[in-house]
Amino acid sequence: MVSLLKTFGKGILYVIGLPFFLVTLVLFGVFGLFAFIFQLFKSIIYFFTGQKFFPDLPEDKQLKLLKEGPQAEKQEDMPMEREVTPREEEKPLIYPYVQEPPREEPVPEEQILSRMTNEETVEEACFGKPEEEPATEEVEESNNRFEKSIEETPVEEESYDSQEEYQEEIVQDEEEEESNAEEDVLETSNDESEEEQEEDLEVYVPKSSNYNDDIFDDDDDTDDDNGVDIRFDV
Amino acid sequence: MNPVLLIKLTENDKRILIAACLVIILVFVLIGFIGSIIVRVMKWQGKKCDTLISDVVINRIVTTPHQLRKYARVKNIRQFIKHAYIPIILMILSVVTIIIHNAITKNWAYNPFNHEDGFGTLLFVWDFKDPDSYANIFGITLLAKWPPLINEPHFVVEALGAYIAIPLAIVGVCWYLVAAQAYLARTIRAWKLSKQVFEKSLDGFNQNTPVENGQITPQQPEQK
């Protein structure tokens, strides 16, 4: 009963206070509407300056400094930038339109020498060095026979009975050489004549024929200002 | 003799008076309940202010009531804008719908609430202007009977713009008022906190307490 009476009393107070409350509410609503419009224009400026919709207040910045240290402040000042993890920071930046040549570190001389001597081929680099197969007995035997045959074959040395025979042979050789030279000269002269003939052939002189006139003659066409007649008479 | 005291009430009049008193009490109790609910809701809405400003206060970045109020005001406005942008969009949509409707029908004097081609076509409408529904009792004109029904809910294609615009406007306005109420609640809370957080109390402090090495020695309980 007491609580009901208390509520009744509150009801009377609320009825008295209701108009004031409503007026305050409306005032706050109107003020909020103006604040909204003001913030809208402000946010357009913030958007074009690359800032947040609601930039941090000085108190918020101080709080971040307290919580995360001075690095957080620096990162926050940079607009529209994503958070960078420490690992990413170590990596070099890749610019899409500027390609720098890769940095070459000085190679020690020993390494250069080893490269020169034992440089791998592309195939070796791809598929590895081929393993040398152990030679079979048959191959070894054949190799040995080949070597022996070379050693055993006697060198045929020309022997002459007399000085006259020797001289005759020399003369014969000289005659053969001369005849060969003459043949070469003849061959060259023949080649030259052939080339000349070829040059003569290159100059094309079209022969007159009866068909040429037929091709360029449009006997069937008639100039009747109706275009070209392309009918085919079957 | 005062004529009021001379009035003799019949049994029926007494019953009517008691019923009227009960109704009035019930109405005020109901208002009291509704008011209590609104106060509770506002206290709950005001708690959001604590969340907004607690970090700065706990870390002692804000050290004066004036600083706290200033910081809380900016934070509250930002929170209000976050709450209110959807109802504002709804209200703008409502206005745009009515403008489009008026532009199509070329009728700029269109009342979207009318019961011919407005939102009123969806409502029951009674003719309270009907003079036959009223009676003159002791020189006072009172409603004597239920007025005649002039409209029953029915669909009208021409009122399509109003059917869209009016619900959007009602929802938008109510939502916006709730957001404004929350903003008011947070402001009141911030005002209270600015007084409460930096409050200094001398309860239990006695300047005559002996100080040794810069520290107050605890008082020994008196032995009886």
Order of strands across the biggest sheet of chain B? 1-4
Largest sheet: number of strands, sense, barrel closure of chain A: none
Shape of chain B: flat
Query: Which bin fits the share of residues in helices of chain B?
Result: 55-70%
Largest sheet of chain B: 2 strands, antiparallel
Structure annotation, total helices of chain B: 4
Question: What's the total count of β strands of chain A?
Answer: 0
Mean pLDDT across the residues of chain B is 87
Order of helices and strands of chain B: HHHEEEEHEE
Terminal CA distance of chain B reads 70 Å
Distance between the termini of chain A: 122 Å
Strand content of chain B: 5-15%
Instruction: Give helix % range of chain A.
Output: 55-70%
Q: Could you name the ranges of chain A where pLDDT drops below 50 across 5 or more consecutive residues?
A: none
User: Mind telling me the C-alpha Rg of chain B?
Assistant: 31 Å
Number of helical elements of chain A: 9
Return the string of H and E elements of chain A.
HHHHHHHHH
Mean pLDDT of chain A: 71
| Oligomeric state of the chains present here | heterodimer
Low-pLDDT sequence parts of chain B? none
